[in-house]
Amino acid sequence: MSIEEILEIVNEKGEFAGSAPRSKIHGNNKLLHKVVHVFVINKSGSILLQKRSTNKDVAPGKWDTSVGGHVNQNEDIKEAVMREMEEELGIVQCELEFLYTYIHSNPYESELVYTHLCLYEGEISFNRDEIDEVRYWTVNEIKANLGKGILSDNFEDEFQNYMKHKRLS
After folding, report:
1. Which one of 31, 67, 103, 164 is most buried, by most CB atoms within 10 A?
2. Could you give the C-alpha distances from 40 to 64, 74, 83, 102, 122, in angstroms and in order?
């Protein structure tokens, strides 16, 4: 029997406002919690996407951000980024850059997202319990698939923020 994750509830500035089990936070979009996302890109600018396992409770079977995960209670953002990259893709080192923060909200949850960029050309050894497949997509391939139900709603929101940040729209 595994112990359930305890996540910090935060305000829009990321300031601590309490904590609760993951099962209480997911399903209540009034409880804002911190997550990290990482765009893993190669030298040609293509973006690695992961196809979420069909067993996931959020966006099963959808293509999603390269890396995404909760920030654990009492964990700082950089620690969460490095932990999630290793857990999900087996990446232990990369050229990491902080990009921006935004709030993503849907009927299921609300997240304060800390987005990073990782330039990486090495081996990918993904977690087959959480991810069914990974592959690099060009920006144009992603644009062509927006709104078709192939990409997670979280990623579509994230991608729009990324395009604005990089001024690529």
Report:
1. 67
2. 12, 25, 15, 19, 11
CA atoms within 13 A on the CB side of 142: 27
**Domain boundary assignment for the chain:** 6-166
Pick 6-166's CATH classification: 3.40.50.2300, 3.40.50.1260, 3.90.79.10, 3.40.50.11540. Answer: 3.90.79.10
| Pairwise CA distance, residues 56 & 133, whole Å | 14
**pTM value?**
0.93
Distance between CA atoms of residues 84 and 78, nearest Å:
10
Where helices occur in the chain by DSSP H, the ranges are 22-25, 77-89, 139-145, 153-166
Tokens of 119: 């330039």
